[in-house]
Design brief:
126 residues, 3-stranded antiparallel sheet, 1 helix, 5 strands, 23% strand
Length: 126
Amino acid sequence: RLGERHKLNDGLVAFWVDDENGYRGDTYFSPLDPQVLTMQARPSDQIDDRDGLHLSMLMDPRGNIHATTGFFPVKTLELPPALYKDILRSIEVVFLAAPVLGPQGLVNISLPQEEGFDWAWIERTP
């Protein structure tokens, strides 16, 4: 299994299995999706270097990727900051921040429901 959605520092968003034509079946996998990419275990004398998978991953470069086999300890993969630090400094992201009108002391905003996630209101107080 790749990615661990319950770990706040896991940066994996999605991944694709590469093949000679691009991506196998044009299917992506995500730690948030209950569908899991699985590989069958085989005796080590039946495995060679050609049995590996090549993956393309979409991730937050500041996070880690957790790889779990269920047998070996969890392996944590991370990108060295030197590979992305300067690039992230040059990116500017803008989110709309506008007043929210409503009764005093009550925040009432329509939000989508996402299974396994909860919305929280966070604000900075002076």
